[in-house]
Amino acid sequence: MATRWCDVVVDAVDPAALARFWSALLERPITGESADEVDVALADGMELVFGTVPEPKSVKDRVHLDLASSSPEDQAAIVARAVDLGAKTVDVGQGDVPWVVLADPEGNEFCVLEQRDEYAHTGPVAAVVVDSFDPPAQAAFWAGVVGLPVIGEGADFASLAREAGPSLEFVRVNEPKVVKNRIHLDVAPPADGDLLIEVARLEAWGAVRADVGQIDVPWVVLADREGNEFCVLTPR
């Protein structure tokens, strides 16, 4: 059994409040809560995890969520619910597009997509989208990390698909990464796997160790080939 993508982790100044926003927006339950972490269930065992950080958001996120909708009416209802909960519409240079760009109460951008058949199986989160200088290369790297197939690829876009839950997508941008990502992925070896052996495999695949201030933690922080941080958790 391969290492799997298990969590989407969001830095938050107030994780409890931000988790309540996303739980209500996605209509998904909060499944765990402590002083510095709150978890919201997504699909297929994946969780949206909100962890405490002291610093507020300062630049556009390089990783964001796309939300699925089933019709124009459903898209409008999701947007209205988001705004009622505290989201705001934002301009990230998207121009005239069929999706709506919003920001959550801590400023994290997300998109509410128009109905698309390819996201009918994902649940409320259609995709986790990562800004990239080279989307095909990033998709190939992450396919090797978590064993998901590349289902779509072009010069400016590439996508990995799960049987259930959000896709992992890469879109071309020209802006460099300048700060630690506020949204990152957690991956974990299977229950019979070995953390250090898996970390060594990922380093051989092109990942590098990353220092984000972690001290004496049971997981290992790595960065992919474009510097996006991710955590390798203990086997599970």
From TrEMBL:
* Residue ranges of domain VOC in the record: 4-115
Q: Which UniProt keywords apply?
A: Lyase
Query: One short Pfam family name for this protein?
Result: Glyoxalase_6
Q: Which domain of life is it from?
A: Bacteria
User: Which GO MF terms are attached to this record?
Assistant: lyase activity
Q: What InterPro entries does the annotation carry?
A: Glyas_Bleomycin-R_OHBP_Dase, Glyoxalase_6, VOC_core
Protein name per the record = Putative enzyme related to lactoylglutathione lyase
